[in-house]
Amino acid sequence: MTTNLIFDLDNTLLDFSASEDHGLRAVFDRYGIPFSADNQRIYQQVNTHLWSELEHGHITREQIFERRFASFLDAIGRSDAPGAEMEVAYRDQLNHGYDRVPGAKTLLTDLHDRGFHILAGTNGMAETQHRRLRHSHLAPYFDGIFISQEIGFDKPSGRFFDAIFAAEPQATRQNTIMIGDGLNSDIRGGANYGLRTVWVNLQQQTNHTGLQPTREVHSLPELDTLLVQSA
After folding, report:
1. Going by C-beta distance under 8 Å and a sequence separation of 6 or more, which residues neighbour residue 118?
2. Active-site pick, 8, 15, 154, 186
3. In the chain, is it the N or the C terminus that has fewer CB atoms within a 10 Å radius of its CB?
4. How many other CB atoms are there within 10 angstroms of residue 77's CB atom?
5. Does residue 18 contact residue 37 with C-beta atoms inside 8 Å?
6. pLDDT tens-digit readout, 120-158
7. Active site residue 181
8. Cα–Cα distances in Å, from 217 out to 94, 162, 220?
């Protein structure tokens, strides 16, 4: 019987892609970088590579923030632009990105009313994630919030999950599900820890990783139905 749910946040419940798009557009405009399809693609390649390096334990979160805009600016031939200053401005933009994935509040309301113990388990900066949860009005639905910066370890590290289970004595591997959109963070981390996993694949992506989530859903209403049936 499932009673504990660990939710990833970004692109699972909070629409990080929308917040990222708004933030990048504002920062690019401020520093005279064209918000072109090519520049967006190059930024995403740099950013995705750095987060993958973090998930594999090769770099730290702080190194992502040190390198992200500097590497992007080098790639587009604009190393004259102030990368460190752009990173600070971008983080400030993300702090105000409160977009929810459509149906997120309805999902959490239903699960909360049905008595599930709902936890957030997210990689990221503590100030950013706490602020986004408060201003998206999702924070009251969570019984616990676990953020990698505060824990000291990122998903998929087992130590990230150790911290959650140490703080939540009612949770066991048998009665807990890890839910998220990240194959290499949420699904790999949950599976390696012995948890059932649900891949929230809202963008209909193809899984090239070889990882096998316990279940896959393509919408939050579908996720709601699945979780209620698992109880």
Report:
1. 5, 7, 108, 111, 112, 141, 142, 143
2. 8
3. N
4. 7
5. no
6. 999 989 999 999 999 999 999 999 999 999 999 999 999
7. no
8. 27, 26, 8
